[in-house]
Design a protein that fits this description.
The complex is a heterodimer of chains A (263) and B (246). Chain A is built from 12 helices and no strands. By secondary structure, chain A is mostly helical. Chain A has one domain. In chain A, helix 4 packs antiparallel against helix 8 and helix 4 crosses helix 10. The longest helix of chain A has 28 residues. Chain B has a single domain, classed as 3-Layer(aba) Sandwich (Rossmann fold). Helix content of chain B is 38%, strand content 26%. In chain B, helix 3 crosses helix 5. Chains A and B meet through helix 2, helix 5 and helix 12 of A and helix 1 and helix 3 of B.
Chain lengths: 263, 246
């Protein structure tokens, strides 16, 4: 067991350069040939935020202080989760030509997509700061703590991504189901409405079962409200991450040797 | 047997594929089939009970017709397939030249691809930086380094791929039909490079449809047919027997 674990780490260490290369490749290719190049990484989320703010501020008037920042912070975290899990889900299938030719540890691909998506998240955070400056939102010293929900969400998404990557190879339907599921999930994550809207309804109970909601709430707690996490924030974020990771790794390891027969 | 070190030991290896004819890869199909009790897979053994020992310094040829399992065997040695049965033990580092240019991204330039492909093969950044000039020299592509790979001809792509894979001195080199690409001069160069590696103590496993080439370059050979070993021995004997049949 210990020897096994040591072997895995050595293997990972050997392939860290590949991980780094693939992430760089994804970033380069994404905005290649556009005149503004890498600037799009910030500009793109910024423009999206602008559109969202316009639309939602017009249609919904909730009693929320600095509504643009409220919705954007939710959007940012939620998008990271959707993007990273969807990309991780299809990563192994996408790299099929490579997997059929050389030996590469398979988990590199979901891991790479989760990392690449995290880089996008960091760029979006820059855009969020720009929006906060423009709307005159206060900058709280607790903002730095936002790294905690971000880091735990990374682990959570990776776990979910590994699970999806493995199971979608055997059952391709999952790819389509997942996009429907994430759409439903968005409405249950309090991205653009206040949680208080649900008071007394069954949804209030349901939303507490949604891990993504907890990450969003923890993020807003320190960025928007300028308050410390509650004990529940710390616990739920960490617990979901650990559970997702354990399940994801187990399922992935069980399937990985047969991937090649199905891709 | 003398005391030569065994580099690759293939022990009673079998590899099973589920034939794609009726592959169940959606939930709906799975449930339908499951409830009807029709959930069975047609099995196909691409390799069956193959045992080989490849010793240090061997230039080992594999011959056989298309679909006989040669490439499957090479891929199993390279770690792409995991044997369903039996065991493969490899002592040393492997440079797979199975399909050249695995992991090349056509949108990236040659320079970027050299690093990417090196990484796919498990080389470190320092190693690639140290070998970069050598790779460029060998592939003779100095003037085109910053051109996206999609503008390259397939022969040029193969050159870079071969150069990257052989830039390091691997313990075992696995070569599948690679010499079929590139112009004559480059083929000669590749053969020379492989000979150099061999002289430096690398073990080569080689698949080719050219019996002449196997005869000329290999010292030992195995003839595989329908996933089973028909004959193992020195290259001359095996090649002669093989040519006699076809």
């Amino acid at each position: 067991m210990i020897k096994n674990l040591k072997g895995s780490f050595q293997n990972f260490y050997r392939y860290r350069f590949l991980l780094q290369n693939l992430i760089q490749r994804d970033i380069k290719v994404k905005y290649r040939r556009s005149t503004l190049g890498i600037l799009w990484s910030v500009l793109n989320p910024l423009l999206m935020m602008f559109v969202l703010t316009m639309v939602f501020s017009y249609f919904f008037r909730f009693d929320i202080e600095n509504y643009p920042v409220y919705i954007l912070s939710g959007q940012l975290i939620f998008n990271y989760f959707t993007e990273s899990t969807s990309m991780a889900m299809e990563s192994v299938i996408g790299y099929a030509p490579l997997i059929k030719k050389v030996y590469v540890p398979k988990y590199i691909f979901p891991l790479e997509k989760t990392c690449f998506s995290f880089v996008n998240l960091c760029f979006s955070c820059i855009a969020l700061v720009v929006v906060m400056l423009v709307t005159g939102a206060p900058f709280h010293p607790t903002m730095i703590l936002a790294l905690y929900p971000m880091a735990t969400l990374f682990v959570f998404s990776l776990g979910v991504g590994l699970f999806l990557a493995s199971s979608s190879i055997f059952f391709r339907d999952i790819i389509h189901l997942w996009s429907v599921f994430t759409t439903a999930l968005m409405y249950a994550s309090a991205v653009f409405y206040p949680k208080s809207l649900l008071d007394g309804s069954i949804m209030q109970f349901l939303i507490n079962l949604n891990p993504v909601y907890w990450y969003i709430d923890a993020f807003r707690q320190v960025v928007l409200n300028g308050q410390m996490f509650t004990f529940n924030h710390i616990l739920v974020c960490a617990l979901c991450a650990v559970v997702a990771m354990v399940v994801g790794v187990k399922v992935f390891r069980k399937g990985q040797d047969s991937f090649i027969l199905y891709i | 047997m003398d005391d030569k070190k065994i580099m690759v030991s293939i022990d009673n290896v079998g590899i099973r594929f589920n034939l794609a004819k009726e592959r169940v890869d959606s939930l709906k199909e799975y449930f339908l089939k499951f409830t009807k009790g029709a959930l069975h897979f047609e099995e196909f053994w691409a390799l069956d009970g193959v045992s080989l020992d490849i010793e240090k310094g061997d230039f080992y040829g594999l011959v056989g017709i298309n679909g006989s399992g040669k490439s499957t065997l090479l891929k199993a040695v390279a770690g792409v397939f995991k044997p369903t049965r039996g065991k493969i033990t490899v002592n040393g580092t492997i440079a797979p030249l199975i399909e050249l240019g695995a992991g090349f991204d056509m949108d990236l330039t040659a320079r970027e691809n050299i690093f990417l492909n090196g990484a796919v093969l498990g080389f470190s950044k320092e190693h690639m930086l140290a070998k970069f000039d050598e790779i460029v020299d060998f592939s003779e592509l100095h003037d085109f380094l910053d051109v996206p790979l999609k503008n390259y001809s397939s022969g040029m792509v193969a050159r870079i791929a071969f150069a990257i894979a052989t830039a390091t001195k691997p313990d075992i080199l696995i070569a599948d039909e690679i010499l079929a690409v590139g112009d004559y001069a480059f083929q000669e160069k590749c053969e020379k490079r492989m000979q150099e590696l061999l002289d430096a103590g690398t073990t080569v496993i080689f698949v080719s449809h050219s019996i002449e080439q196997v005869k000329r370059m290999c010292n030992k050979a195995t003839w595989i047919e329908k996933g089973k070993v028909i004959m193992t021995g020195d290259a001359e004997t095996v090649c002669d027997a093989y040519s006699a049949k076809y």
